[in-house]
Design brief:
- This protein is mainly alpha-helical.
- The chain has helices at about 5-15, 20-35, 45-55, 65-70, 85-95, 105-115, 125-135, 145-155, 160-180, 185-210.
- Helix 9 (about 160-180) runs antiparallel to helix 10.
Length: about 220
């Protein structure tokens, strides 16, 4: 088994326990995240989100639920925003009881997965804030890491015409930049906000062909 898969399988065992039924669920999730049509929503992204959740763990109310939600949040990925999150939430509702997860936590995991459709947790929803911030931590990577992420996103939408993709992607990113902050937790803002804003602003300029503005000197 390749190291990245074995590492994730070990992380799943630590979370869900060593039982055979839990192991089967973990194997299914790893296989889903390793589907050949994926380019960004891959095992690499799953590992990055789990690592980011670990960095933000102190801000969570139920870190176990957040970790389960990280595993499930894009377990179903067909390039259909909103529908993918709903299908992933239903998959969590279907599979988690086999891992011995109680009904209350199953419902919470499914709720958290659904929140990632828009990344707009309610104020004070600590677990959703942690999960959404971890999912978007990719925005705060190095310029090289961000460029690789942006290329992977484009490849996942390779069926969309370039002009349409550029317009939709620019609108999405401009919406992010219009918010007071990209991240919801203070810890995530300290870790990733400045670099994320620079990366996103740079991609918007590339997509729209605009020059940096006066406030973009560091972007």
């Amino acid at each position: 088994m390749p190291p990245h898969r074995s590492d994730l399988c070990a992380a799943w065992r630590e979370l869900a326990g060593p039982g055979e039924r839990a192991a089967a669920v973990g194997a299914e999730l790893v296989a889903r995240w390793d589907e050949p049509h994926r380019r960004h929503h891959t095992l690499h992204h799953l590992r990055a989100v789990l690592e980011a959740v670990g960095e933000l763990a102190e801000d969570a109310a139920d870190i176990t639920a957040v970790r389960y939600a990280a595993w499930f949040h894009d377990a179903v990925y067909q390039g259909e925003p909103g529908a993918d999150e709903e299908r992933s939430a239903r998959l969590a509702e279907e599979l988690l009881p086999a891992c011995g997860v109680d009904a209350r936590r199953v419902a919470e995991v499914a709720r958290l997965v659904r929140v990632t459709a828009a990344h707009r947790p309610r104020p004070g929803d600590a677990d959703a804030e942690v999960l959404c911030d971890a999912d978007l931590s990719v925005l705060g990577g190095t310029p090289e890491e961000y460029a690789a992420y942006a290329r992977a996103v484009r490849e996942e939408y390779r069926h969309v015409a370039d002009a349409d993709f550029r317009a939709a992607r620019a609108a999405l990113l401009e919406g992010l930049l219009a918010a007071p902050a990209l991240f919801h937790t203070e810890r995530a803002r300290a870790l990733w906000e400045a670099r994320a804003r620079a990366n996103v602003a740079a991609e918007v300029r590339e997509l729209t062909g605009t020059a940096p503005g006066p406030g973009d000197a560091t972007a």
